[in-house]
Amino acid sequence: MAHSSSNTTQILKADGGGRTPLSVSRALPRHVITRAGSRVGNAALMWAGAYAVAITLNEYAAHRIGTVAPHGWNIGHTTALAFVMISVALYVVSRMGLLSPERLLDLGLLYEVVGGFAVVLGTTAGMVWDPHAHILGLSWVSVWIVGFPFVIPATPGRAALAAFATALMAPAGLAAWHLLSGTPMSPPRVWSGLTVPTFICAGIATAGSRIVYGLSRDVERARALGAYRLEERLSQGGMGEIWRARHHMLARPAAVKLVRLDTFRGMQARQAALARFEREAQMTARLTSLHTVRLYDFGMTEDGTFYYAMELLEGLDLESLVKRDGPMPPERAVHLLMQACRSLAEAHALGLVHRDIKPANLFVCRQGLDYDVLKVLDFGLVRPENAPGQTLLTGDATMVGTPAYMAPEYVSGESVGPLSDLYALGCVGYWLLTGQRVFDSRSPIGQVMRHLNEAPVPIGSRSPAPIPDALEAVLMQCLSKEPGRRPASTERLEAMLAAVPMDRSWTPARAREAWSEGVVG
Description:
By secondary structure, the chain is of the alpha+beta class. 49% of the residues lie in helices and 12% in strands.
């Protein structure tokens, strides 16, 4: 999981199991669809009145921009009447409940395009452009395009399609006027003066629709997360966001991770991602160790956003901690590794393999009066031991796990099990004591191949401080290429770490002192 710049991590997991169906729901939040659908008809009446005013003002000001408007009934009046009738019909349809809110929104977008054509045809009808006139400012269709998304919201893609289709109505309406009236074509500056601004406004409308869409999703998240109220966004990544949240009734702080499934291309990728996140929640909910992050709740909002609600942790992950402060004393490294063993021991007892143990997934935090409490995060890749399909690559050639901490059996095809997690813990210990990875490479494949074929450099030769020989021996045993040469179990590894003789102990007082000096917090 991620942590915030304020050294606070969020994590989510479930307490209940799979309550969420594997389905892709509406792109717009339900309450936005319902409210927008109900106001389509009212907006149509409002726009019909505004259109009539625009026609009147346009004819009044015609002589001021180099045009002459003939008296009597003309194409503009016919267009205005047709547009008013269409608007009234849309109002009636919306009031009669003949269409669902979703279909009303679709009809509203079609109404935008038709209305754009009517605006252009109506405001140019009856005009004979002065060859020497200059077209300045925005046309009425530009105003129509910019204002429409704020009344009838849509997903960004659909809003952009409707906006640019409406912009095309500018040249189409002007051409229709010339064909219907039999008048000569307008000069190029008239076409460009009418057309270019509409496309610029279509771009503005597209940006505006994205803002409206984003705000509506944020509001929906706050509404749809049930007992939790989102308070502050702590971080944002490629797949989602992490928020500080609070339980309405318990006043309990939590970390809520929102996973945007629309970032995955294609239905198959979305379903696979959803299955992974749901599995992570369910698996984590089964674990009760003090050293496994606690999951409060999980589910899916109506707009297709998957979320976890987890305990809010104050501290840093071990990746960030070592990067910031450098290698740590051996006694502290042992203290943290033993806590990781306790979390993994429970998972292994349930037949689960984490498969992505790394410093970034081990979080050191403060809980109450206890300092340097380690939590294991991110069970997104967890699998039952010896489950089928535990390979290096997924079906879409995406690497499973983190190459810098990947056991050789992921590549060699041997059985992947709890001892694979112990290899990763050995890599973590290497990082804590040296500030360096066991193997580095320019490519992920090159890195995993080094894990398969090369012997690691002894820890003592890369550590800036003396390392007990017994500790180095334990960690190098974890890094054995053959699983059978590693410690027999997570409990055995913890016992071996506990037996390492140390010059000094990592006591609660030393941990508290480290935190007070800002080593972690």
